[in-house]
Amino acid sequence: MFDQNERRRGTGVSNRPNVHYNQTMKWRFDDLLTFLDVMETGSVTGTAARLNLSKSVVSKRISDLEGALGIDLFQRSPRKLVASDHARDFVERIRPLVREIIEAADTVGERHSAIRGNLRIAAPMSFGTLYLGRMIADFARQYPDLEVAVELEDRMVDLVRGGYDVGIRIGILKDSSLIARKLCTDARIICCSPAFAAVNGLPTRLEELSSFACIDYSNVNTSQLWQFENPASPNDPISVTMHGRIVANNGEAMRDMAIAGLGLVLLPMFIAADALRAGVLIPALPDVTPVPYKIYAVYPPTRHVSAKVRAFVDHLVRHIGDPPIWQMRDPFHAERP
């Protein structure tokens, strides 16, 4: 709580700036953290489950904060909780301040102890299931005092609003406010099943691509534009417009549908490599080079990068490598039918 009676004894002179706090303003930091979580989950029940608290404790913290501020943060009904305009304004003001306080506390604590606390990670589904899970497991074994929460989503996650410490981004970075560290450059490849190639043949040049059935990725607006490196003009990639009969929002699902013979697919190598090595997918146009993806670790800007984030990102850099581990064996020269 804030206490306005911090004065030097015997002098009557305050050693703090002349700021007058509301006499009745007595709130707790836990109340703010709970409020931020309720704004994210949209419900007392969701926050109670995530913070491992009873619903009554969550409700009391919100009520205490409302009492301290003298405003209603939520409109309540038996079926839902609706944030007021005050709540939406308040959350935007306090979120960066709360993060700074947490980071400052982490930084001070890390000077005197091993890496500990909580590490929240957001990553794409396919990358998380295929590679990141094993790396996180190894990292967690190294730091037994660290609690790790991983959320896998193929949609773009707002790290700041979601309270994440670090995220994985694949492709073009759209949020310039985040600090980014490149992990690797991942090649991409057009591939299909041997059965599809046997029935439909394979394209021999880019101009033929659009006449083939394909599988598109639905999570980006440019999914129908397949882009390729242009040797004559490196900054001006060649684009081919594809019209996929099938679209999916997950790379592993796209890979599996290609294995089933439904069409050509453009995949990052971290998804395609094992299937290419196994021979269930084959390169469809190996003489052209799709524009590669860059994979980044990103985290919100703070004055001091916490030791846990720094250690985790360093761990990823060491384990992934550049070129990355999944490209260490060359699947590009698999047999064509």
UniProtKB/TrEMBL annotation:
Matches recorded under InterPro entries: LysR-type_TF_proteobact-type, LysR_HTH_N, LysR_subst-bd, WH-like_DNA-bd_sf, WH_DNA-bd_sf
Superkingdom classification of source: Bacteria
One of the Pfam families matching this protein, by short name: LysR_substrate
Keywords: DNA-binding, Transcription, Transcription regulation
Record GO biological process: DNA-templated transcription
Any GO MF annotation of the entry: DNA-binding transcription factor activity
Annotated ranges, domain HTH lysR-type: 27-84
Family: Belongs to the LysR transcriptional regulatory family.
Name the UniProt record assigns to this protein: LysR family transcriptional regulator
